[in-house]
Design a protein that fits this description.
The protein has 2 helices and 14 strands, in the order ββββαββββββββββα. It has a single domain, classed as Jelly Rolls. By secondary structure, the protein is mostly beta strands. The longest helix has 6 residues.
């Protein structure tokens, strides 16, 4: 597994070692020992999986306080534009965002640390997204930031009229 650093500290892209032949491919999507050897010591306790169609935008979500979550996000099927926003108080990159295409083809994963808002939009006809969390979901600690916050100026990669957004996400506050 290879770690690719982003411009935002502790926000990492993980690239697995993929073995391909005429039968298809094989790779380890998660191996605690491998991550420990790379200096990443996270105890994941919950897996979440979503299936969405083209244009569905989920986010930008986070959990705060003692229930803040580190997430390891990957796409099992399809393509998404995955976005993380630094909301860590005192961070030199507070309010900065990073986006990356995650797909079943590139097999990249995004390690989103505690203190970040996270969201994605589906670029393919359908996408199945799996993410590991190091804390359990706790409804009272959930929060979010509007996907179209003008201070963030996130380019989601699809026309606005194609976006399918949950009413709950439309009610989220701006940064």
């Amino acid at each position: 597994m290879q770690i690719i650093k982003t411009d935002i500290p502790n926000l990492l892209v993980l690239k697995p070692r993929v073995f391909e032949d005429e039968r298809g491919c094989f790779f380890e999507s998660y191996n605690k020992k491998t991550l420990l050897n790379l200096g990443i010591d996270i105890d994941f306790v919950q897996d979440n999986q979503s299936v969405s169609t083209y244009g569905v935008l989920r986010g930008l979500h986070f959990q705060s306080g003692e229930f803040a979550q580190t997430k390891l996000v990957r796409t099992v099927h399809g393509r998404i534009l995955d976005v993380a926003v630094d909301l860590r108080e005192g961070s030199a990159t507070y309010g900065a965002h990073f986006s990356i295409e995650l797909s079943d083809e590139n097999k990249l994963q995004l390690l989103v640390p505690k203190g970040f808002a996270h969201g994605f939009v589906v670029l393919s006809e359908k996408a199945e997204v799996l993410y590991k969390c190091d804390e359990y979901y706790n409804q009272p600690s959930e929060g979010g930031v509007r996907y179209d916050d003008p201070t963030l100026n996130i380019s989601w990669g699809i026309p606005h009229e194609d976006m399918v957004i949950n009413e709950k996400d439309l009610l989220l506050p701006y940064l």
